[in-house]
Amino acid sequence: MIKKCLFPAAGYGTRFLPATKSIPKEMLPIVNKPLIQYGVEEAADAGMTDIAIVTGRGKHAIEDLFDNNRIIEAAVNGTDKESLLEETNRLMRTCTFSYTRQKEMKGLGDAILSGEPLIGNLPFGVVLADDLCTGEHGRDGILAQMLKIYEQHHCSIIAIEEVPEQDTHKYGIVSGVEIEPGLYRVEDMVEKPQGTAPSNLAIIGRYILTPDIFDLLRDTPAGAGGEVQITDALKSQINNGGVIAYKFRGRRFDCGSIHGFVEATNYFYSHFSASDSPRQPGRADNSA
Hints:
By secondary structure, the chain is α/β, with parallel strands linked by helices. It has 10 helices and 13 strands.
């Protein structure tokens, strides 16, 4: 059982300025719940209860979210608002949280490498909180789906989805052989391809990585955009045990963009329960 999940959360979130001048983008709310909490719930539901978060300057609000606040707790104690804290309190009871800082903004690969002291020599999940995902109605969340594939193949697993060809330049794109419906043995991947992309299968912000990725990242030079790209390190893994790409069953919202953020807000608001609490990310109805 994989217990550790890494959350790279050091980015500036400049697409949401001026809000992110003082609020971490991971703390922006979808309805009444911060983005990062949806991701932690997905990880915890998959059994990944050791939560490791890579932060940066000005991100202390993330730590405060998963800590006690006696003033607020006392203010809502015994009122109808007390239940609004239950999901957060459940995570605090069932998960452990550890933090480290990324010293420089040098890309996702460097952010993952910064989390090595929190992960150690173990396979682990990775969640990018601004990719908000929900499983199909009544089914497992995305990470839980990926864990089942890892248990079969014991190599790095990446989540993918089909995107319009005109949008392939925004993503890491994979190509490979389909070994089962929706499951690909990756043969190549390109970060934000310019010109013709090898496919329209785009990597999204869910990974299960084997611990050799850290040594590979240490040896990976800066790539696209002058940053250390996780795709470049994964390309090295293709020849050393393989990488599996999984077309997940569910829905993803790109909450790093304003359009995706508004779309997610509307979706989760429409799926509010009678108790005015958003449904779990891995269990939401996908009928909308």
